[in-house]
Design a protein that fits this description.
single chain, 228 residues, alpha+beta, Glutaredoxin, Glutathione S-transferase Yfyf (Class Pi), Chain A, domain 2, 2 domains, four-stranded mixed sheet, 9 helices, 54% helix, globular
Length: 228
Protein backbone atom coordinates (compact mmCIF):
# COMPACT_ATOMS: atom_id res chain seq x y z
CA UNK A 1 0.00 0.00 0.00
CA UNK A 2 1.28 3.47 -0.86
CA UNK A 3 1.40 5.95 1.98
CA UNK A 4 1.53 9.73 1.68
CA UNK A 5 2.81 11.56 4.73
CA UNK A 6 1.32 15.05 4.57
CA UNK A 7 0.63 18.12 6.67
CA UNK A 8 -2.52 18.54 8.76
CA UNK A 9 -3.96 21.27 10.94
CA UNK A 10 -5.50 20.85 14.37
CA UNK A 11 -8.32 19.18 12.46
CA UNK A 12 -6.72 16.02 10.99
CA UNK A 13 -8.92 16.34 7.92
CA UNK A 14 -7.60 19.82 7.07
CA UNK A 15 -4.69 19.24 4.67
CA UNK A 16 -3.18 22.47 3.41
CA UNK A 17 0.45 22.05 2.32
CA UNK A 18 0.97 23.22 -1.28
CA UNK A 19 3.69 20.61 -1.73
CA UNK A 20 1.47 17.79 -0.49
CA UNK A 21 -1.39 18.94 -2.70
CA UNK A 22 0.94 18.69 -5.68
CA UNK A 23 1.50 15.03 -4.88
CA UNK A 24 -2.19 14.32 -4.27
CA UNK A 25 -3.00 15.73 -7.71
CA UNK A 26 -0.14 13.75 -9.27
CA UNK A 27 -1.34 10.48 -7.73
CA UNK A 28 -4.86 11.14 -9.00
CA UNK A 29 -3.42 11.83 -12.46
CA UNK A 30 -1.67 8.46 -12.39
CA UNK A 31 -4.74 6.67 -11.05
CA UNK A 32 -2.80 5.43 -8.01
CA UNK A 33 -4.48 4.77 -4.68
CA UNK A 34 -2.76 5.68 -1.42
CA UNK A 35 -3.30 5.90 2.31
CA UNK A 36 -3.02 9.37 3.82
CA UNK A 37 -0.81 9.75 6.90
CA UNK A 38 -1.60 13.29 8.15
CA UNK A 39 1.01 14.76 10.49
CA UNK A 40 1.34 17.90 12.56
CA UNK A 41 4.35 20.14 12.01
CA UNK A 42 6.03 18.62 15.07
CA UNK A 43 5.30 14.97 14.21
CA UNK A 44 8.81 14.18 12.95
CA UNK A 45 9.30 10.55 13.99
CA UNK A 46 7.11 9.02 11.24
CA UNK A 47 9.32 10.78 8.65
CA UNK A 48 12.49 9.01 9.83
CA UNK A 49 12.08 6.49 7.02
CA UNK A 50 12.89 9.28 4.54
CA UNK A 51 16.10 10.44 6.22
CA UNK A 52 14.79 13.99 6.64
CA UNK A 53 11.96 15.84 8.40
CA UNK A 54 9.79 17.50 5.77
CA UNK A 55 6.58 16.45 4.05
CA UNK A 56 5.52 15.28 1.56
CA UNK A 57 6.98 11.80 1.80
CA UNK A 58 5.68 8.99 -0.40
CA UNK A 59 6.30 5.41 0.71
CA UNK A 60 5.58 3.01 -2.14
CA UNK A 61 6.48 -0.50 -1.07
CA UNK A 62 10.24 -0.49 -0.44
CA UNK A 63 10.69 2.93 -2.07
CA UNK A 64 10.60 6.11 0.02
CA UNK A 65 10.75 9.46 -1.78
CA UNK A 66 10.57 12.98 -0.39
CA UNK A 67 10.24 16.39 -2.10
CA UNK A 68 7.29 16.94 -4.43
CA UNK A 69 9.30 17.32 -7.65
CA UNK A 70 11.35 14.21 -6.85
CA UNK A 71 8.08 12.34 -6.24
CA UNK A 72 6.81 13.45 -9.66
CA UNK A 73 9.99 12.08 -11.26
CA UNK A 74 9.69 8.85 -9.30
CA UNK A 75 6.07 8.40 -10.40
CA UNK A 76 6.97 8.95 -14.05
CA UNK A 77 9.82 6.42 -13.87
CA UNK A 78 7.85 3.80 -11.95
CA UNK A 79 4.43 4.31 -13.56
CA UNK A 80 5.18 5.63 -17.08
CA UNK A 81 1.55 5.73 -18.26
CA UNK A 82 0.05 9.24 -18.25
CA UNK A 83 3.31 11.19 -17.81
CA UNK A 84 3.42 14.11 -15.42
CA UNK A 85 6.59 15.85 -16.57
CA UNK A 86 7.68 13.86 -19.60
CA UNK A 87 11.39 13.39 -20.19
CA UNK A 88 14.42 15.39 -21.22
CA UNK A 89 13.60 18.93 -22.28
CA UNK A 90 9.95 18.57 -21.28
CA UNK A 91 10.96 17.76 -17.70
CA UNK A 92 13.45 20.64 -17.63
CA UNK A 93 10.87 23.11 -18.92
CA UNK A 94 8.32 21.99 -16.33
CA UNK A 95 10.93 22.35 -13.61
CA UNK A 96 11.75 25.86 -14.83
CA UNK A 97 8.07 26.83 -14.84
CA UNK A 98 7.68 25.46 -11.34
CA UNK A 99 10.72 27.35 -10.07
CA UNK A 100 9.77 30.70 -11.61
CA UNK A 101 6.04 30.65 -10.92
CA UNK A 102 6.27 29.03 -7.51
CA UNK A 103 8.66 31.61 -6.13
CA UNK A 104 6.83 34.49 -7.80
CA UNK A 105 3.43 33.41 -6.47
CA UNK A 106 4.39 31.83 -3.15
CA UNK A 107 5.63 34.96 -1.37
CA UNK A 108 2.56 37.10 -2.10
CA UNK A 109 0.36 34.20 -1.04
CA UNK A 110 2.39 33.75 2.13
CA UNK A 111 1.68 37.37 3.07
CA UNK A 112 -2.02 36.56 2.75
CA UNK A 113 -2.02 33.10 4.29
CA UNK A 114 0.45 33.21 7.17
CA UNK A 115 -2.11 34.32 9.78
CA UNK A 116 -4.52 31.65 8.54
CA UNK A 117 -1.92 28.90 8.84
CA UNK A 118 -1.13 29.98 12.40
CA UNK A 119 -4.85 29.97 13.24
CA UNK A 120 -5.55 26.42 12.01
CA UNK A 121 -2.53 24.51 13.30
CA UNK A 122 -2.51 22.49 16.50
CA UNK A 123 -1.62 24.34 19.69
CA UNK A 124 1.37 22.00 20.08
CA UNK A 125 2.75 23.26 16.75
CA UNK A 126 2.47 27.00 17.35
CA UNK A 127 5.82 27.59 19.07
CA UNK A 128 7.63 25.48 16.48
CA UNK A 129 5.88 27.20 13.59
CA UNK A 130 6.57 30.67 14.93
CA UNK A 131 10.25 30.07 15.68
CA UNK A 132 11.08 28.33 12.39
CA UNK A 133 9.13 30.72 10.16
CA UNK A 134 10.36 33.86 11.88
CA UNK A 135 13.94 32.64 11.51
CA UNK A 136 13.40 31.95 7.81
CA UNK A 137 11.58 35.22 7.14
CA UNK A 138 13.77 37.43 9.29
CA UNK A 139 10.67 39.02 10.79
CA UNK A 140 7.87 38.23 13.21
CA UNK A 141 4.78 36.60 11.75
CA UNK A 142 2.81 39.75 12.46
CA UNK A 143 5.36 42.02 10.78
CA UNK A 144 5.61 39.84 7.67
CA UNK A 145 1.88 39.25 7.15
CA UNK A 146 0.18 41.83 4.94
CA UNK A 147 -2.90 40.38 3.23
CA UNK A 148 -3.76 43.56 1.30
CA UNK A 149 -0.26 44.01 -0.12
CA UNK A 150 -0.03 40.28 -0.78
CA UNK A 151 -3.25 40.33 -2.82
CA UNK A 152 -1.93 43.21 -4.95
CA UNK A 153 1.42 41.46 -5.51
CA UNK A 154 -0.35 38.21 -6.31
CA UNK A 155 -2.44 39.82 -9.04
CA UNK A 156 0.73 41.12 -10.67
CA UNK A 157 2.49 37.76 -10.35
CA UNK A 158 -0.45 35.93 -11.94
CA UNK A 159 -0.47 38.08 -15.10
CA UNK A 160 1.62 35.61 -17.19
CA UNK A 161 -0.59 32.70 -16.11
CA UNK A 162 -3.70 34.74 -16.84
CA UNK A 163 -2.51 35.41 -20.42
CA UNK A 164 -1.53 31.77 -20.96
CA UNK A 165 -4.76 30.34 -19.58
CA UNK A 166 -6.84 32.74 -21.64
CA UNK A 167 -5.75 30.70 -24.67
CA UNK A 168 -6.00 27.13 -23.36
CA UNK A 169 -7.80 25.37 -20.50
CA UNK A 170 -4.70 24.10 -18.69
CA UNK A 171 -1.06 25.06 -18.37
CA UNK A 172 -0.13 21.81 -20.12
CA UNK A 173 -2.70 22.20 -22.91
CA UNK A 174 -6.08 20.57 -23.35
CA UNK A 175 -5.71 18.32 -20.31
CA UNK A 176 -4.01 18.86 -16.94
CA UNK A 177 -0.58 17.41 -16.21
CA UNK A 178 2.53 18.10 -14.18
CA UNK A 179 2.79 21.86 -14.71
CA UNK A 180 -0.81 22.32 -13.60
CA UNK A 181 -0.24 20.33 -10.43
CA UNK A 182 3.09 21.95 -9.58
CA UNK A 183 1.50 25.39 -9.74
CA UNK A 184 -1.99 24.30 -8.66
CA UNK A 185 -0.79 23.11 -5.27
CA UNK A 186 -0.41 26.76 -4.29
CA UNK A 187 -4.04 27.47 -5.11
CA UNK A 188 -5.26 24.44 -3.15
CA UNK A 189 -3.17 25.75 -0.23
CA UNK A 190 -5.02 29.07 -0.24
CA UNK A 191 -8.44 27.57 -0.88
CA UNK A 192 -8.14 24.99 1.92
CA UNK A 193 -7.19 27.78 4.31
CA UNK A 194 -10.51 29.47 3.58
CA UNK A 195 -9.51 32.22 1.18
CA UNK A 196 -9.33 32.85 -2.55
CA UNK A 197 -7.26 35.96 -3.31
CA UNK A 198 -7.87 35.76 -7.06
CA UNK A 199 -10.96 36.55 -9.12
CA UNK A 200 -13.32 33.63 -9.64
CA UNK A 201 -14.14 34.76 -13.19
CA UNK A 202 -10.51 35.28 -14.24
CA UNK A 203 -8.78 32.77 -16.49
CA UNK A 204 -6.73 31.64 -13.49
CA UNK A 205 -9.86 31.37 -11.38
CA UNK A 206 -11.64 29.25 -14.00
CA UNK A 207 -8.55 27.03 -14.35
CA UNK A 208 -8.37 26.45 -10.59
CA UNK A 209 -12.06 25.63 -10.45
CA UNK A 210 -11.53 23.01 -13.17
CA UNK A 211 -8.75 21.42 -11.10
CA UNK A 212 -10.82 21.56 -7.93
CA UNK A 213 -13.87 20.06 -9.63
CA UNK A 214 -11.74 17.32 -11.17
CA UNK A 215 -10.27 16.41 -7.80
CA UNK A 216 -13.56 16.53 -5.89
CA UNK A 217 -15.38 14.49 -8.54
CA UNK A 218 -12.80 11.72 -8.15
CA UNK A 219 -12.00 11.97 -4.43
CA UNK A 220 -14.88 13.72 -2.73
CA UNK A 221 -15.15 17.11 -1.00
CA UNK A 222 -12.01 18.86 0.11
CA UNK A 223 -11.98 20.00 3.74
CA UNK A 224 -11.81 23.78 3.98
CA UNK A 225 -11.02 25.90 7.04
CA UNK A 226 -13.87 27.96 8.40
CA UNK A 227 -12.27 31.24 9.45
CA UNK A 228 -13.72 34.70 10.02
Amino acid sequence: MRELFELRGADPQLLFSPYCWRVRLALLHKGLEFESRPLRFTDKQPLACSGQQQVPVLRDGDSVVHDSVAIFRYLDRTYPDKPLLGAGLAESRAALLERVIFHAVRMPLLKVLLPRVFAVIDAADKDYFRSTREKALGATLEAFADPEAGAVQLKQALAPLEAWLAEQPYLDGEAPAGSDYLVGGLFFWAWCLGTQPWATDSAVGVWFQRLLNHYQTACGPVKRAALD
